[in-house]
Write a structure and sequence with these properties.
The chain is α+β, with helices and mostly antiparallel strands and 158 residues long. A hairpin with a 2-residue loop joins strand 5 and strand 6.
Length: 158
């Protein structure tokens, strides 16, 4: 696939329906995890224009910053801390309409207003999380959850 993306307009569902096959084509056949994660965050950031899109990888007993696009970020997050650490601990997606209302929110960027975190589960264990922040309140909903969970399911962690 060429490195140019077709950026769709329209509804959120139409945007996901356009970008996800392109992302899958980008990562299909590529064995390097970091390269794939980097292309995934670039494609999502380009399509949606979110403030921050990135991965945290479980290493030892903490989340360690992986490929991302956006402002500088927290490098390490402990299990159960903030939205990412809570998603990891609970092994479930968390949608936060207003980060200021989330107990224990870790403010890596004061520009972040809402957030969604999707755990990546392999062999019954969380191996990473996809973290997306928006500069707008109430940015994320069940549509984002549906499509982003589909996306992370397609990533090969080996």
């Amino acid at each position: 696939m060429a490195e140019d993306l077709l950026i769709a307009s329209g509804t959120k569902s139409e945007k996901y329906s356009s970008i996800l096959p392109q992302v899958n084509a980008l990562i299909d056949g590529e064995e390097d995890l970091i390269a794939n994660l980097a292309n995934i965050v670039a494609a999502l950031k380009e399509q949606f224009g979110w403030l921050w899109v990135g991965f945290y990888l479980v290493k030892k007993n903490e989340l360690v910053l992986g490929p991302f696009q956006g402002p500088v970020a927290c490098t390490r997050i402990r299990k159960g801390k903030g939205v990412c650490g809570t998603s990891w601990q609970n092994a479930s997606t968390i949608i936060v309409p207003d980060v200021e209302a989330f107990p224990g929110h870790i403010a890596c960027s004061s520009a972040s207003k809402s957030e969604i975190v999707i755990p990546i589960i392999r062999d019954g264990k969380v191996t990473a999380v996809l973290d997306v922040d928006s500069a707008s309140l109430n940015e994320f909903d069940e549509t984002d959850q549906h499509y982003l969970e589909q996306l992370v399911a397609s990533i090969k962690f080996e």
